[in-house]
Amino acid sequence: MRIPKEKHDSAITDRDFFIPTDALKKFKQKLMPGDILLERRNWFMSNIGIPGFWPHVAFFIGTFQDIDRTFSGIDMLAGQVPSEYLKAKFPRICESMAQKDEYGFPKSVIEALKNGIVLTSFEHSANADYLAVLRPRLSTEHKFKAIIRALGYHGRPYDYNFDFDTDNALVCSELVYKAFEDSGNLSLQPVTMNGRTIIPPNLIAQKFDELFAKDTRKFDLVLYLEGNEKQGTFFRRDAADFRKTWQYPKWDIMQR
Fold first, then answer.
1. What range does the domain containing 97 cover?
2. Which of 30, 49, 188, 244 is 20 to 30 A from 197, comparing alpha carbons?
3. Rounded to 5 degrees, what angle do the CA atoms 88, 187, 175 make?
């Protein structure tokens, strides 16, 4: 299935993304609620204003079935069904989450897009040229709390000012930062660029590389799919390959 590019952003090419929705079906089985998605689409205008190779990050929260399977039994729920807890806390949001997207895929991702903080499907969000799935090294309860915090920002507008000092509007990395802000080990430290406090998505990949062999490592790599402009397709790569990506040129078309 082809998802129109205007659903993502302003592209300056008319080709399909290298990672199609059909291919994502088998990879989706590897994901768990609480995973973080790093995404890149080559030749997109929005890449210009975002530092580094990786311009977008999204948060995989899973379906209600995924949530119940992952979080049942955690102490904070005191025996309550995880999905029922969320439905009681966020009735309108969960009503939307229970509906499939316009392409018939279940909503399982929360992310900041140009129309604000929205629920999307994994198939829509990960329909890209490059995709990395990172799993935070956190307790199951910490991940559930991060999902609760992320859902609390649903419906807020996109922050075109990239201002991390307020949360009335958010960018993609700010949503992930706010979701995991009180999660101890995963605490991501914003940096100052051009007078603004931000966390570029590329910084997440950089930290993965720098901490890879250390006890302070914050993520495990679940999946890395790398597009190839010359061959017009994608290849599955390993952690050694992913570790290099944060150093790729911003307009990377380097291929093997």
1. 33-247
2. 244
3. 50
The residue type found at 208 is F
* Element of type H or E holding 143: helix 140-152
pLDDT, one tens digit per residue, over 207-240 is 999 999 999 899 999 999 999 988 999 999 999 9
Q: How far, in Å, CA of 28 to CA of 11, rounded?
A: 25
pTM: 0.92
Cβ burial, residue 161 (10 Å; 0-12/13-18/19+): exposed
Say how many domains are in the chain.
1
Q: Which of 177, 138, 148, 172 lies closest to 158 in space, CA to CA?
A: 172
Question: Does some domain include residue 18?
Answer: no
> Residue 130 belongs to a domain with what CATH number?
3.90.1720.10
> Is it the case that residue 254 has pLDDT exceeding 70?
no
Q: Identity (one letter) of the amino acid at 244?
A: K
Q: Is residue 165 part of a domain?
A: yes
Q: What count of Cα atoms within 13 Å lies in the side-chain half-sphere of residue 166?
A: 10
Domain for residue 1, yes or no? no
Structure tokens at 143: 């991940």
Per-residue model confidence as pLDDT tens digits over 8-62: 556 566 788 999 999 998 999 999 999 999 999 997 767 776 889 999 999 999 9
Q: Tell whether 16 is covered by a domain.
A: no
CA distances in angstroms from 186 to 11, 48, 109, 132, 211, listed in the order given: 33, 28, 19, 17, 12
